[in-house]
Amino acid sequence: MFLQTKFENTLTGLKFKKNKLENIGRRQLAYSILNHNKGHYAIFQIEGPADAAIELESKLKYDTSVIRHLLLKVDSPSLEDSLLMVESREAKKSPQEDAQTREKPKVTPASPKEETKDKAPSKSEESKEGE
Questions:
Q1: Domain limits at 46?
Q2: CATH of the domain at 42
Q3: Could you say which of 10, 80, 103, 127 is the most buried, measured as most Cβ atoms within 10 Å of its Cβ?
């Protein structure tokens, strides 16, 4: 969270306006980058001057706590959740759904001992009782 606050302060200093933030969280990287296997993902939708974007790019490039970044210029921003955010929500829901299905009581068949009580005694049981 410290990095996110630091980045927001940098944006404010460069006269950028933050339209939306998607904090996806810690995820496995597709491949190891600088001996890191996991990273914290965040998607910012920002508005600001084009010349400030160049300065923002250089600040991100030389910030050692940022291992990858990507700035994109879009004509019309989308306020819908990104696919990465939707995927991460579904991944978080799956373990909870599994836990709920485990909590449901399962119907167990009658044990073999109970079944033998209802049956008529077999010949071997009769001979033992008769002795």
A1: 2-90
A2: 3.30.70.60
A3: 10
